[in-house]
Sequence to fold (780 residues):
Amino acid sequence: MRHSQEVARDDVAQAAAALLDRLRARSPRVHCITNAVAQNFTANALLAVACVPSMTLSPEEIAPFVARSHALLVNLGTFDRERREATEIAVATASQHNVPWVLDPVFVDRAPPRAAFARDLVARAPKVVRLNHAEFFALAGAKPTREALVAYARDKKITIGLSGETDLVTDGERVATIANGHPLMAKVTAMGCAASALIAACLGVEQDAWRATAAALVMIGVAGELAATQAEGPGSFAVAIIDALHNLDGPTLIAHARVN
Amino acid sequence: MRHSQEVARDDVAQAAAALLDRLRARSPRVHCITNAVAQNFTANALLAVACVPSMTLSPEEIAPFVARSHALLVNLGTFDRERREATEIAVATASQHNVPWVLDPVFVDRAPPRAAFARDLVARAPKVVRLNHAEFFALAGAKPTREALVAYARDKKITIGLSGETDLVTDGERVATIANGHPLMAKVTAMGCAASALIAACLGVEQDAWRATAAALVMIGVAGELAATQAEGPGSFAVAIIDALHNLDGPTLIAHARVN
Amino acid sequence: MRHSQEVARDDVAQAAAALLDRLRARSPRVHCITNAVAQNFTANALLAVACVPSMTLSPEEIAPFVARSHALLVNLGTFDRERREATEIAVATASQHNVPWVLDPVFVDRAPPRAAFARDLVARAPKVVRLNHAEFFALAGAKPTREALVAYARDKKITIGLSGETDLVTDGERVATIANGHPLMAKVTAMGCAASALIAACLGVEQDAWRATAAALVMIGVAGELAATQAEGPGSFAVAIIDALHNLDGPTLIAHARVN
Fold:
């Protein structure tokens, strides 16, 4: 048990270091359908790890943007007709061009139509769904126990990235828990959206969705810990985490990763 | 005269301290219809005082979001069809579920259709209207003298929060003037929008709209003064005021409040 | 040759200093049709040099906003129906009221419909088009050599502001190259959009579009260099450049301008 945990830890930490290098070497294009609250912070988080974000929602042009991207993020925050239409086109284009995509079903626990739409999307083969406890409960109708998460991931053939005090990543077979992060992350809007965008970025350079998801959550968790040492509150923390993502390197990730 | 002023000062300063504690204890949900320029900063200002912001505009889901919120903000900046439609639904829902709401008639002095819409909204029983001098003139057709403000508030049965070098808060009976704040607050976009969001937050934990409005303006004014001591310009000021809101406490509010 | 370069350098540096003073003295109103990612940062950049930004897209009210503005920015990022409709009205209003406008054809290299729309707009007499190398290639169908840029500007009767490691500004007759700036500027979203907004601001106080464009690019380039000395990454850089714009003065611009 001890031994297999250490393997998981090393595997995920090494993956995080390797994928960070790959992001910087390849600068993947990541198209984001995301809420207006999160667009600026998400774009800056992606730029900080050398990615090229784009954010258009126009039905006339989202297909070429997605087709030429290395990954797609579909975030349901501030969910409106325009984003729903954009999502339909983007997901169809991603499927046609084998562009991996991440679903972030923000606030599905707050409005039933959003939860219904999210369930439809889960059936359309996202590689990853990243969400918090309340969102999983609303989406899956079950408490987010380890068993329920593994069963849901296996049943839907997706990777689940559950955010919380400890993050959990499972593809229905493998499970990693990640203890990195800092309480100030919950005090800055769009932090979860940025985490989902980083998962999309990692999917742009890594086919194994479980590794990509765990690596991305280690990156943002470690960046959050480093940022907290510089911050005097959530305002300066939001600035410092962008700096920290930009300044991250593999050895720092490996030294700070807390994975089981 | 001296005596009654001191009562007002102490009453408002104590209210600010008490409401700050109540925000942190209850974490009210505040739904915001606000302009795209302001969404991120407004969300972070609300998070800094432990509130839960939401921002969706979708006509299908704004009703359940508002019905489950403790307060609603209607901000008319970047005013478009989507936000107008969202506002109609949100205000009707707020009325039905007794959710208190704040109107921020941004830039009604710049476009006649916006002023007409704002006048309609004033008739639909917001608890508070927060605006600046030019906006009051466009809305009410009168200069914002103390007498005109008191008369307007009494006539419309609302609380007015007038922003300026000195803020004035009146419900048509009571008047408080608040001298807190800093000139850099006028150099950061969405600062007024964030002030209105804090008023909404306070309305979520305090039924007396005059007290809630004066308390919120003291909070953001004191936070601005503290932030200015850390800032080297409007960029770092915008960051520092979020930190300051997060780090505020009752004794600091009481020590710094400049209310008459 | 040496001599004429020095004249150009002094002319542009002096123009930058003079226009910065004029911005602060006149506080021009700048209406911005820009992408949601860029709205907040653009508004804060304009406020930092004493301008009054507005951002509404509503077809009912954009005409009065533009008619009462001193300059207009049309940025095609996150290009959607709403912004296309707003652009049609805004450009017609600008033409009718002699409001100078700037076109920023963001990402025209990524989607054909956007490039076609941008070409139509170039024919509708913007004073300035600001873009990067890939965008010029998509728009003009030619590599952005000095000769191609001069020919395009002369042919279209516009000023071109090409961003890159060295910026180039030409109206088809005069050419200035500006070496100011810092690599971190490419790591912050909306930096180019903010540059275009500053060009619009300068057009609001200077009829000579070539001078206005070169001056604006010197301002943001010098601000970027000053910000980089304070920054620990792109997060703190984005904050510091707003502070730097706010704290800029003429002598600093003249001392730091690197123009040929």
In short: The interface with chain C takes residues 35-38, 40-41, 77-82, 107, 110-114, 187-190, 231-236, 238-239 of chain B (CB under 8 Å). Chain B has one domain: 2-256. Chain B is about 55% helix and 15% strand.
